[in-house]
Amino acid sequence: MKNIKNILLSDLYKLHVTCDQGLDHGNGLMVWMHPPVHRILGWITNISSFSLSRSVWRLNQIVGIDSNRIYVKGTSSITDQTTLDRLPTLINAVLLNKNGEKLASIVDLVFNYNTGEILYYLVSRTNHKLPGTSRWSLKINNISDQQPGMVLSNLNSLDDLPLVKASIREEFMKKSKDWRDQIKFIRDKASNKLDGWLEDSPWEEFDRTDFIKYDNENNWVDNFEENPNDDKVITYSELKYSNARAKSKKSDNDPWI
Q1: Phi, psi of 11 (to 5 degrees)
Q2: pTM value?
Q3: DSSP-derived secondary structure letter, 123
Q4: Most buried one in 47, 66, 88, 208, CB count within 10 A?
Q5: Tell me: the pLDDT tens digits for 128-158?
Q6: CATH assignment of 1-165?
Q7: What's the CA gap between 107 and 129, in Å, rounded?
């Protein structure tokens, strides 16, 4: 792990500190940082939960890291918890959106242990100590102002941040939203197709002219010419006279009658 430069603060807490004399100084307890420039200066350990004294280590004392330990050179500075509580920190600070509404809390961070530069923070909406809680990545350029215990951002909601770790509930909500979006897309697409089909109905184009053309192609002899007298009302006497005249004309041409 000597080539690792970026480390999660919560992972740093899990590692026991071993000095160059081979003594174990316990694991991490809290961070020593300079919030205005987003830089880590060191971290604090306690050798025992029954001890009231705390050991403060600088980052430049680190000489190596493996999977279980941090190896440091030199000695630590000894202090007490009351003094440490006055150190400025953004851990557990409330994250506000640009309207001043609470979004989450800053619970962790990733930093370069060679330089102390904080790369980004991790925020959680619920208690981060609970297993499976969701975490979002908060970049430094998303922070517009900061005060003790409070960070103002240029965000509207947590949806503006990339999700680093999703809980089961968050995964379900995300999948449900994707399903709803897919269903809405399919429904809208089907509705548009139906509207276009109704607007361009084939029978609307099947008018009288097309019917005449179809008959002509099949050599039909039906006469569909426009007759200006189509709307004229024929009386019964006129219809009777017309039938009688037709019979008379037929008898003149029929030799068997």
Answers
A1: -70, -35
A2: 0.63
A3: E
A4: 47
A5: 677 678 899 999 999 999 998 999 999 999 9
A6: 2.30.30.240
A7: 9
